[in-house]
Specification:
The complex is a heterotrimer. By secondary structure, chain A is α/β, with parallel strands linked by helices. Chain A has helices at 9-17, 23-36, 48-63, 106-113, 164-171, 188-194, 228-238, 256-259, 282-297, 313-328, 346-357, 360-373, 379-399, 425-429, 436-441, 470-484, 488-492; strands spanning 43-46, 75-79, 117-122, 177-182, 197-200, 220-225, 268-272, 301-305, 405-409, 445-452, 458-465. In chain A, strands 1-3-2-4-6-5-10-11-9-7-8 form an 11-stranded mixed sheet, sandwiched between helices. The longest helix of chain C is centred in the middle third of the chain and has 20 residues, at 229-248. The chains are: A alpha/beta, B alpha+beta, C alpha+beta.
């Protein structure tokens, strides 16, 4: 049975179909693994009863010949940013204390109706604000990987963030796959840190309805999986037009798995010269070069492209996202749900509740956002940032006139140790330097495990595609995955 | 761009967040350094560039004027820290 | 009609701009599918979107968009086929999102005009700056509990049109006329019910004063949420006097939000709002720009009803009514419809007289609206018909009118039952005339002596003996014939 949690979605689908094991058995294995792996702190809330009930329902469907597809009976972790009916939803924040939504987010509902089995709600940075999963009210998550050498050898490492619990759960064998959300890199960067696949779809591909909002113009849900094929399967179950989300794209969901032809011959891959930054870690550069070579070998045409406004993306992001967040988080006021800290007056109650309920990083971003929108600064900060966002988006549009996909590193480093980079917010923000531009442009981007650092930690490469062209992203990602030929057991086995 | 304590206090009030007095100074420092770093945007000439509020290029979808929701008082009040007789309750507001 | 305040330092004029919030008539709310009906149990007409649960998102109601376009067209305003929703950020217990979705620098409707009909029969044009769509807030109840305020979100998210005038008004009367005209227009359009007492139309009054002859705009004070035309006029009077007194005393008016105390007829500063507001408007990232085609605007334009101004012109030009009478009749759509039913196929001037001079007095005595008129338009029309075909005289008609009020019977029935049919039989009238002449030898002498006014005495005698039913024209003619011969 112990091998069951080394399976991926595609192989589990086949095993379930052949009757080699039941969804309940599969789920039971994960429930035990979760209990054994609590030290990782990957889950905020475990839902074994919900999981077993859904697994048995899945088995019952299958027994009747009504199995619903690849996700039926697959045990997954749900990032605790998705509202789940009847199950505590925290967004990693003290301020949502005790909040049990009377509704189910569209994405989690879609997964549920595809038969997926929810194992629990995975840990995350508070309100998805962070790049190391250290801002969660429920404590930091540990990366299942450990450095085999170097200064961090043996230390607890961060899983990346904000979807750190999801990434760690998948990498550590505590879920077969997980949902993530990505605002500036929150799926891709932890995927890179934990050696898994993380796909941020095009903005509008997955509904935001029922997902606790961080920055509405950037937030996008996506799959975090062991393989590229799994990402394709899971995205298919998550995505789709939702009339309840005005920004949801009214487009049909393609069969992403079928779009992965394995043939990338003749595709033109752009290499943005501005991503070769001063002081870049040579290991990251080497990995990138290796990725370029692999794609060349697979028949791709490599072309240097220019994304001239790249260096301004992070600063742009750190205006746009906090500004939107400052308004999105205004609803946490102690009146209708969550934490209330009493006060002598309404204002006093607000101040006490929000002062105690939000952690430092969230408060920092709310303050930056409030300031950027305030009278006298709006033009200099918010409007300026929106204009630069236009320039960044235009950079990609120009580049995609001559290339089919873009290849970059996912993150500027491997996972770092818990406690590192915590003093300087800006140093922490730099983790997202390669992922943020894609978010600002709303484009699909995927991190694929492509190699290891000299200290034995996984590193990812990012494939960026045209708007709503996740198919090409997945196809190129699969080519990288194949060329890299990483031993998946090594990845998932690292925790034990 | 450098923020002083009073400005931080004022923004914190706008955002209705209690910040302890001894936290104001360090927070002012952190926020100033973030804003200084953001200052780099000012080097870019953005005259005539349209601000981008959304990456979507579709128009705003509209729904039909039908009553399809509501009548769920229990669900609305279920998570409330304080409620009575179907109302939410908050500390007395004096106008 | 100038409204001048005599201050110690000179003459002052008042500058008034109005911001009126009109609740849009729609089944469901602006951004959620919850109902909009007035007076439901607390928090029952609330969706999870209205309660701002985490992850809830707004989707716009197309009917609210159409209503805003329609109202804009009724105000002869520019319709912006692209507009943007913005978040207006502030904290209040009945504002669950912590922001109101409104429109800031790109509203759905741009500049327009409204024509005021003033009491002296003159008209005056006032500019509309803009109309935008926004969410209503919920309701705070402060008097249910000694230590707590109770919150009902039923109104949260109901669509409002905020209609902002230019600072074009110069007297309380003009402001009153503006509010009445605006109410009339939205009622004609059926985009808002205009019921100020129920809060479906609310007014923020911006007042400043300046020396007569000056063109500067001085600091204004905004009095919020005034809920009747009369209160708005009172608030302006009070504010204007207050501000003049401040300037006279060498002080400066401060820009602030004030409340109107309708019991005392005064405005007072809202202490709770003394902290400077900074609403931090920015485009709502949950909503894309609202874009619609010129075709939609044209389609809605084609459905516009005849509005009060056009109707008034028609009454003047086609019916030959005076501008005053026409204005009175068109002010309320129900009145205009009543009038037109009475006038249908009859003398419109006569119909207007009866409605304005007779019916309005009754309605105002009884304190009811035209829709609750004790006499239906059909019956009033029939009464007029009886006058025209000489079945009864105008004088008898007034008695019949009174009887109709008392009994609710049709005029024909009353005339029949009471035998009020006019006597047109020459023989019968002649007998009564002869009798009168015979009885009034002294009066005959006076008449012959040149006192023609005495004729009235004879008419009176004849009417007395016929219970007023003799045809007055015939009576006059016969009397003259006989007395002159």
């Amino acid at each position: 049975m112990s091998k069951l949690n080394e399976l991926n979605i595609a192989s589990a689908r086949d095993g379930l179909a052949r009757g080699e094991f039941s969804a309940a058995e599969l789920t039971e294995v994960y429930i035990q693994a979760i209990q054994a792996g609590r030290d990782m702190n990957a889950y905020i809330t475990e839902t074994p009863d919900v999981a077993l009930e859904r697994a048995r329902e899945s088995d019952a469907r299958r027994a009747k010949g009504d199995a619903m597809g690849a996700m039926d009976g697959i045990p997954i972790a749900m990032k605790d940013l998705f509202c789940t009916e009847g199950v505590l939803t925290t967004a990693g924040s003290h301020i949502l204390d005790g909040f049990v939504p009377p509704y189910e987010s569209t994405v989690s509902a879609n997964l549920r109706s595809a038969g997926a089995v929810m194992l629990g709600k995975s840990n995350l940075d508070e309100f998805a604000m962070g790049s190391a999963n250290i801002t969660s009210y429920y404590g930091p998550v540990k990366n299942p990987w450990k450095a085999t050498s170097g200064p961090n050898q043996g230390k607890d490492l961060v899983p990346g963030g904000s979807s750190g619990g999801s990434a760690a759960a998948v990498a550590g064998g505590l879920a077969m796959a997980a949902t993530g959300t990505d605002t500036g890199g929150s799926i891709r960067q932890p995927a890179s840190f934990c050696g898994i696949v993380g796909l941020k779809p095009t903005y509008g591909r997955c509904s935001r309805w029922g997902v606790v909002a961080f920055a509405s113009s950037l937030d996008q849900a996506g799959p975090m999986t062991k393989t590229v094929q799994d990402a394709a399967i899971m995205l298919g179950a998550m995505a789709g037009h939702d009339p309840k989300d005005s920004t949801s794209a009214p487009l049909p969901v393609p069969d992403f798995e079928a779009l992965m032809t394995g043939d990338v011959k003749g595709l033109t891959i752009g290499i943005p010269k501005e991503y070769k930054m001063d002081g870049m870690d040579p290991e990251i550069q080497a990995l990138w070069d290796q990725g370029i070579a692999w794609l060349k070998d697979a028949g791709c045409i490599i072309k240097e492209v220019s994304l001239p406004h790249t260096k301004y993306a992070l600063a742009t992001y750190y205006i746009v996202a906090p500004a939107e967040a400052s308004a999105n988080l205004a609803r946490y006021d102690g009146v209708r749900y969550g934490l209330r800290v009493p006060g002598d007056s309404l204002d006093d109650m607000y101040m006490n509740t929000r002062g105690a309920g939000f952690g430092e990083e969230v408060q920092r971003r709310i303050l930056i956002g409030t300031y950027a929108l305030s009278s006298g600064y709006y033009d200099a900060y918010y409007i300026k940032a929106q204009k630069v966002r236009t320039l960044i988006s235009n950079d990609f549009k120009t580049a995609f006139e001559s290339v089919d996909a873009i290849l970059t590193p996912t993150a500027p480093s491997a996972a770092f140790a818990l406690g590192e980079k915590q003093e300087d917010p800006v140093a922490m923000y730099l983790n997202d330097v390669f992922t943020v531009p894609t978010s600002l442009a709303g484009l699909p981007g995927m991190s694929v495990p492509a190699g290891f650092s000299s200290t034995g930690l996984p590193l990812g490469l990012q494939v960026i595609g045209r708007s709503f062209d996740e198919g090409t992203v997945l196809n190129v990602g699969a080519a990288l995955e194949k060329a890299a030929g990483l031993n998946l057991k090594a990845v998932t086995g690292a925790s034990s | 761009m450098s923020l002083d304590k009073d400005t931080v206090k004022n923004i914190a009030y706008l955002a209705r967040m209690r910040v302890a007095d001894d936290k104001l100074e360090p927070l002012a420092g952190e926020l100033s350094s973030i804003l200084n770093w953001i200052e780099q945007l000012q080097e870019l000439d953005t005259d005539g560039v349209e601000p981008m509020a959304s990456v979507s290029d579709v128009v705003l979808p509209q729904r039909k004027d039908a009553v399809t929701d509501g009548n769920c008082q229990a669900a609305v009040l279920k998570n409330a820290p304080d409620s009575e007789d179907g109302f939410f309750a908050v500390p007395k507001v004096v106008e | 009609m100038s409204y001048i305040l005599k201050g110690e330092t000179g003459d002052w004029e008042v500058v008034i701009g109005l911001e009126v919030h009109c609740q849009v008539i729609s089944n469901a709310k602006l951004f959620s599918g919850a109902a909009t009906d007035f007076g439901a149990e607390p928090n029952t007409q609330v969706s999870l979107v209205d309660a701002a649960m985490p992850g809830m998102l707004p989707v716009i109601n197309e009917q609210c968009v159409r209503q805003a376009i329609k109202t804009g067209l009724g105000l002869k305003a520019k319709i912006n086929t692209k507009s943007v929703f913005a978040r207006k950020n502030y904290f209040y217990a009945d504002l669950p999102q912590g922001y109101q979705i409104s429109q800031a620098d790109q509203p759905i409707v741009g500049p327009g005009t409204i024509i005021l009909d003033l009491a002296d029969g003159t008209s005056r044009e006032v500019g509309i700056e803009r109309l935008h769509l926004e969410q209503d807030a919920g309701k705070s109840l402060h008097d249910q509990d000694p230590t707590r305020t109770f919150i009902d979100l039923n109104r949260t998210g109901v669509a409002l049109m905020e209609i902002v005038s230019d600072p074009d008004m110069r007297s309380p009367e003009e402001a009153g006329a503006y509010l009445r005209k605006l109410r009339s227009i939205v009622r004609y359009l059926e985009t808002c019910d205009g019921n100020m007492d129920q809060g479906s139309m609310r007014c923020d009054v911006n007042v400043s004063v300046r020396p007569v002859g000056s063109t500067e705009l001085r600091t204004r004070a905004e009095t919020k949420n005034v809920n009747s035309v009369r209160f708005a006029m009172q608030a302006i009077e009070y504010e204007a006097a207050r501000q003049v007194a401040i300037y006279d005393g060498g002080g400066e008016v401060v820009q602030e939000t004030r409340l109107f105390d309708s019991q005392k007829g005064v405005t007072r500063s809202m202490r709770s709002k003394e902290h400077a507001h900074d609403y931090r408007y920015f485009p709502d990232p949950d909503l894309l720009p609202l874009v619609f085609s010129d075709d939609l605007v044209a389609e809605i334009k084609a459905t516009l009803p005849e509005l009060p101004d056009e109707r008034k012109d028609r009454y003047i030009n086609v019916f030959g009514l005076s501008p005053y009478d026409a204005g009175v009749l068109v002010a309320e759509k129900d009145t205009a419809m009543y009038f037109e039913a009475v006038a249908e196929g009859r003398d419109a001037k006569m119909a207007a007289n009866w409605v304005i001079n007779n019916l309005f007095a009754v309605l105002s005595d009884r304190g009811v609206g035209i829709s609750d008129s004790p006499i239906s338009a059909v019956d009033l029309g029939k009464l007029l018909g009886l006058i025209v075909d000489e079945t009864i005289s105008t004088k008898i008609a007034k008695d019949v009118f009174e009887a109709m009020l008392e009994t609710g019977d049709s005029p024909e029935k009353i005339v029949e039952d009471k035998g009020l049919k006019q006597i047109t039989d020459t023989g019968a009238i002649e007998a009564a005339v002869d009798a009168a002449i015979a009885a009034g030898t002294a009066q005959v002498a006076q008449y012959k002596g040149g006192n023609e006014k005495i004729l009235g005495w004879f008419v009176g005698q004849v009417m007395k003996s016929t219970q007023g039913k003799a045809n007055p024209g015939q009576v006059n003619k016969l009397l003259k014939d006989k007395l002159d011969n």
